[in-house]
Write a structure and sequence with these properties.
66 residues; single chain; alpha+beta; 3 strands; elongated; three-stranded antiparallel β-sheet
Length: 66
């Protein structure tokens, strides 16, 4: 059986932790910062872990992410 291919877009956007959770960048910070509160901008720094239903979808795109 040939190897499965990883989705190129997914490998650039998501990381798999050692425990198998999926980390992703926070959404909503590309533009329109003037209308967002400072608290939103502060809280949206760094990475976040995806919810289990979302992580299940991303895991299909990362067959070797484990």
């Amino acid at each position: 059986m040939p190897k499965m291919k990883t989705k190129s877009g997914a490998k650039k956007r998501f990381k798999v932790t050692a425990s198998g959770k999926i980390k992703a960048g926070q959404a909503g910070k590309r533009h329109g910062m003037i209308k967002r509160s400072n608290k939103f901008i502060r809280d949206a720094r760094g990475l976040t872990t995806l919810s289990e239903p979302d992580a299940r979808i991303v895991r299909q795109f990362l067959p070797y992410g484990r």
